[in-house]
Amino acid sequence: MAGRIDARLTELGIELPQAAAPVAAYVPYTISGNTLYISGQVTVWNGERRFLGKVGQDFTVEQGKEAARLCALNIIAQAKAACGGDLDRVVRVLRLGGFVNSGPDFHEHPQVINGASELMMEVFGEAGKHARAAVGAPSLPGNVAVEVDAVLEIA
Fold first, then answer.
1. Which residues make beta-bridge pairs with 100?
2. Planar angle of CA 65, 12, 41, nearest 5 degrees
């Protein structure tokens, strides 16, 4: 039987990608007590890299927001894997850290990372409200447009 969050994903018409395997010397997540730390997730959909380039140059802010949303889908997929398939174990999204591949004249990082933040609130409701950082970077791994990491409280 699907849980409350799985039902919410279905209601929203949201499909999760497969939880991505790490591509370097790290693990996709760690758990300490009731805290789940999810490594930075990039713009990959089931192994296919998307949104390659810089926001503000190769992509509009709105497209950057879509890229951040894709990162958040990957975060939720990792959370599901970490929780043994039970997203109802997520008590609260505590923090997101967003990185935007952009040039020195780009200043709309918060609007881009809103794509990830808004998805967390859509899916988890009140428990999806979180603290956040949104910063620019001169480059990101694989030239992806956005990377987002997360800290969640789990039961």
1. 136, 146
2. 40
The DSSP 8-state label assigned to residue 104 in this structure reads T
Q: What angle do CA 14, 20, 21 make, to 5 degrees?
A: 165
Helices (H) and strands (E) in the chain, counts: 3, 7
The whole-angstrom separation of Cα 76 and Cα 71 is 9
Amino acid identity, residue 106? F
4-154 belongs to which CATH class? alpha beta
Q: What is the pLDDT of residue 78?
A: 98
Name residues of the chain where pLDDT drops below 50.
none
For tokens 């480059």, what's the residue?
Answer: 139
Residue that the structure tokens 């043994």 belong to: 84
**129, two tokens:** 């409200």
The Cα–Cα gap between 5 and 14 comes to 11
* Cα–Cα distance, 29 to 75 (Å, whole number): 10
User: How much is the pLDDT for 2?
Assistant: 72
pLDDT of residue 23: 86
Q: CA-CA distances (angstroms) from residue 82 to 28, 44, 87, 102? A: 9, 19, 9, 31
User: Residue 60: its pLDDT value, please?
Assistant: 98
Domain ranges of the chain: 4-154
**Residue 6, strand partner residues:** none
